[in-house]
Amino acid sequence: MAQTKILIVEDEEDVLELIRYNLEKNGYLTEAAMDGRVALEKVRSVSPDLILLDLMLPEVDGLEVCRSVKKEPKTAGIPVVMLTAKGTEADIVAGLEMGADDYVTKPFSPRVLMARVKAVLRRKDSETDTDTRVIRVHNVEIDPGRHRVLIGGEAVKLTSTEFNLLKFLASRPGWVFTRYQIVDAVHGADYPVTDRSVDVQVVGLRKKLGEAGKYIETVRGVGYRFQETI
Ligand code: CA
Question: I need a labelling partner for 153 at 20 to 30 A (CA). Which of 38, 64, 139, 176 fits?
Answer without folding.
Answer: 176
